[in-house]
Every structure is written in C-alpha cells, then in structure tokens.
Amino acid sequence: MTLKGYFDYNATTPLSDAVKAEMRHAMEVFANPSAAYPAAGPARALLAQARQNVADLIDAAPEQIFFTSCGTEGNNWALQASCAGAPGEAAIVTTAIEHDATLAAARALGQSQGRPVHVALPQSDGIVRADAVARASAGPVAVYSVMLANNETGAIQPVAEIAEIARDRAVPLHVDAVQAVGKMPVSVRALGCDCLSLSGHKFHGPKGVGAMYVRDPGTFAPMMIGGGQERGLRPGTENLIGIAGLSAAAAEARALMDPNAARNRENRKRILDGLRRQGVAFSINGPADDARILPNTLNLSFDGLRAEALAMRLAHLQGIAVSLGSACSTNKDRRHSHVLVAMGLPEARLVSALRISFGRYTSQADIDALVRALADGVAHLRQLSGAA
Amino acid sequence: MFSDLIVDNFTSPTHAGEIDAPVLVLENKDPVCGDQIRIGLAVENGQITSARFRAWGCATSMATANILCKWLEGRGVQDCAEASAEEISALLGQLSPEQRHCQHIAQNLVRQLAAQEAWP
Questions:
Q1: Do A328 and B99 lie within an 8 Å CB cutoff?
Q2: pTM over the 0.90 mark
Q3: Of A252, A283, A316, which residue is a domain's last?
Q4: Is residue B120 part of a domain?
C-alpha cells in the first residue's frame, strides 16, 4: 500500500491489508459469542484470539483485556471506575497535556461529584515531570491519569516514575496509551499502571474499537450495567468484526514494531536534515532527546507565518495532509493547542505550529516531497508577509 | 471548507508585493487572531492604478488581500470608498464562521478610503 502525502498518522491510520482480510473473514462469523451452542464456537474463538493478541502487544494477560468502542470510552471508564469507591474529597489528578477525552471527562466528573480536579503542568519540552504530578495534590487523590505519549508533540511521559508515586500513596493509576500503543513497545508491567486505554485505529485497526487493560478486574467498577459480556465489566454484544480487525492490527504491530520504529526514526531525521539543508528556519516543539519522543511525530513551528495558511497550501498545491496546532476560530476567541499553550510557548510559535506524523506507508519519496513543499510554502508565506 | 475563490486567490496571488512610494496605504489587523493586511495604492486622477499587498495570517485573510487588491485596481477611489459593507463582504463569497473575521478586515480596509480627505 502507498499513501502519498498523508502526514496525519496520529489522527488515524489506514486499515492494513491483513486487518482488512481478518475483518472480511469475521463478516462470516455471525453467531453471538455468548450463545452456548456449538455454532457460536468460531465467534468465541475469534474473541479469545483477539484478547490474546492485544494482551501480547502490551505485555498483559488476556483476562486483563476488555474490549471497548474507542480510547475516549476507555479514558472515561477509567476515571469513573477509579472514582467509584473513592471518598468525595479525593481529587482527580491529571496533566495539562491530556487529550480532551481525559481532561473534559475529569472536569465533568469533578463537577458532578463535587470532586477537585488538579492538573499538573509540563515543562517547556512537553514532558510532565513525576514530581509535578506528585505536587499537584497534597490532599487525598482518587486517581492519577496520565498519557504515555502525547498526541501533538510525541513527548513520552515518565509513567513508570508516576506509578511509583501512585503506589506509595495507594492511588490507582490510569494510563492513556492511545497514541503510544503500536508505535512504541508498551509493557503494562513495566509501567506499573492499574488500567490503560488503547484504540485500534491508531495502529491500522478499524475505528470504533479499542481495549482497556485492567490489572485487577475483580475490583474494577463496570463501564455499564447490562448483560454479562466482558465478564460484566463492559456489557453489550461484542463488535466482532471490529475486534477481529483490532486483533490483526495488534498482532501486526507487535511483529513489525522494531522495523517500523526504525523507519520512522529515519524518516524523522530525514525531515529535519532536509529542512536544515534547504535553509528553513524552524523550532521543534517537544523533547530534544529522541529517546523521549515517539519516532513518528514531529511538531514544528515556522516563525513569520500562520500554520493554517501553510497547511492549506500543502493540501491544495501538493496534496499533503498535516495537522494544525492552532486555527482561526471566531471573532471572539483564539484557538491554540492547549498542549502547546501549557508548554508555555510564545504566541509566534503557537500560531505557526504544525504536527507532522508519519508511519508504515510513508516512503522516503513522500518525505522528500514534504520537505520540498514545506521549504517552498514557508518561503512563499514569509515573502507574502514581508518577513522573508 | 474553502471555496474555489479563496483557494485560487490564496494559492496563486496576483497582487502580492509592494508599490514604490504608494499614495495611500490601508492597514488593518484583527484584534483577536492577529491576521493583518497592508495594501499599498498608486492613485492617478482619483483612479487606483495599482494595488499590492503584504499579509500575515490564515489562508482566507491572504486570499482576502488579493481579492481586495483586484477589486480596488482600476476603480475610482471615491467609488470604492462609497461601497457598502455588504458589497465588500460579497467580494469574498460564502465564508464559514471561522473565516468571517476576514469580512471585517476587508470592510475596515475599505473604510479607510472614506476617511481620506484628499487623494491625487
């Protein structure tokens, strides 16, 4: 497969051929996996295999995996379940760089339960230090919720260190690993988390299916009340076709982890080297240390222009898709990335920030075309503004 | 999201640049998003003979600058100054809510012509 001009892999990824094949096969598996008769056997087998594949991808046991509809559901469930048995004054502690699926859910839960919500700030490189999370609340805490890798900057967070703090205080730790799973090795045992959410479409699985890892399912509150599916924790007849796709995507991601990461690192370097060779001035929004950043993610600012204009030029002249850190909103407010704002970046970098994310189907020719298009677009827009 | 009019005027601007010793200069900046347009005009006998812009902002604001320059060029200063806000907005075609700040920028720029007391 080729995917020319697509540089928005952190938003979503295309189905791989193996995933499509598995989903096509699952279309013939119609029986309800909860049924007791033999015809339901293939459906149950499909679910079991999928649970195993997802567990293997994150170093968990299959009985710790629960299928969900998406990352947002997982994040909401994790917060709700963790707060279910916590005293009312115990806070939700999260970070300012979380996805809205966590931040908005935490605020809503805090409001409905009268529970404080504390948000730890990142450093200017986008990493939230463990001690910032520890300092975020001196009082009782119901749950710590942090992401493993940030979707905008790619910054990998010190989750294992945060887990130590959570363990010392006997507080559950939820990890939003939606952006990390499939792009970097993830071990729930090494992270030391109590629950972790992931989403299939971020690593070539289908949209509308995800999974939750729950370390100790016996003490975890259910997402919904209903039938006994997913051992009563996430009831509802299973989305077999989607789960089949997730299963294949998980197996493939695990098998291809090293070569994909190596290619992404090469491509990342090729973009940076290419821009420097072309004399394009830019800033990197995120960690300087390659070991602290997802290999497929680059967040760059090009002073002297609005990234929105650059993205439109790339899209309409070169057919290149990237993501924005900031956009025009209405006459009444500005719309900057809350992540970049939390990092304390100056206005000029906020308005000129582009996220470039790439992956399995990105060729070196695509990278070179992107570099040429960026160099051309940046020069053109700087000239229009008189900044050149 | 973007009309053909905006795409064409943004991707292939015909009136970008500077005029040597412009007779009139129109400038406006959106106070919220910061988009700004500066248009230099050459004027002879009350007619705008040349309009060129510099702009910083989103794609729509840059397209706005080019559209406005094309509209201004060849027109009488007085005629332009008398154009209604609706007429100026219509130059930009259909815009989505997040693009409509450009209508205000365009109207503010043209309004500056009306404020001029005299021109060559």
A1: yes
A2: yes
A3: A252
A4: no
